Amino acid sequence: MRQSIVNALSRLRPRSRPLRLVLVGLGLIALLVAFAMRTPAPVGHWDSADGQDRFLRAYTRAFADMPEPQESIDVRTDYGIVRVYRFAGTGTGTGTGTGTAPLMLLPGRASASPVWADNLPLLLEIGDVYTIDLLGEPGMSVQARPIDDDGDQAEWLHQTLRALPAEKFHLVGLSIGGWTAVNLALHRPDHIASITLIDPVQVFADMPLGTIVRSLPAALPWLPRSWRDSFNSYTAGGAPVEDVPVADMIEAGMQHYRLRLPQPARISEDRLRALDLPVLAVIAGDSVMHDPPAAVQTAERVLRRGTVRLYPGASHAVSGEQPEQIADDIAAFVAQGS
């Protein structure tokens, strides 16, 4: 009996060797990736002066497509200095001499204020608009202290809003900016009049596994730019991103800025039900960042004071694809809650 077991095991060993080699190889790859991405720095930072200069040039070119800001403000918080721009409204809406809340625009991951270039002229017809470069992301904000959890993420933004002239703001968050807006509302809602979420991630539905897998090569800065451009184009419904100022800025940030932020966790339905603020949820029908039908169903089910809009055929880059529709929906939403 013992000999038969030995013989059986000896027959299995040659077949198991390729599997062991694959596992060892995968382990070595994981180790090399972890080693290459290691850093002793506890805060977000640039990989080099040349990398920062490249981003700043791209940022300046992209910012040239924005209206002229009335004011550039650097707000000192416990976590670093946050760059905010104020743009004067051109209409008679929420923030133009009426004493009511202006809009505050929060960009997505690895982007900054210039990502709103296509939206600002239309949103300024509603009233005054502020834009912000998220702390810990590539931009003009400078992180100085670790941001360890969701509470820290809310606190730096709360301190920023508290330092600005307006008492309350209509937050408009794009992608991860939408998650950031909801996270603030759950922790420190003091200065929020309403929230507009433009295809938010990790809010109403999980990120698909396929998108996570496709994002991994784009996250490795030493790989060719074409890999990052390919992922950015994928999220934008296949639109070309070469020689586009905002896309150049995002790619430069992805390559040269080292994020040191906690991974945003999916916000539970119970917590979403606790939101006692007006919420406009804009869901892109062809978004690859979540399951759009599931996101719509969740938003309609859990938001106590919610307005849900599905944009058929729109990609995750919906803010640039349909700026007129977004401006119309935000104007109607803000006016209804004023």
From TrEMBL:
Q: Name one GO cellular component term.
A: membrane
Single GO molecular function: monoacylglycerol lipase activity
Please state every residue range assigned to the domain named AB hydrolase-1: 102-234
- Its name, as the record gives it, is Pimeloyl-ACP methyl ester carboxylesterase
GO annotation terms (biological process): acylglycerol catabolic process
Please give the InterPro entries that the UniProt record associates with this protein. AB_hydrolase_1, AB_hydrolase_fold, AB_hydrolase_sf
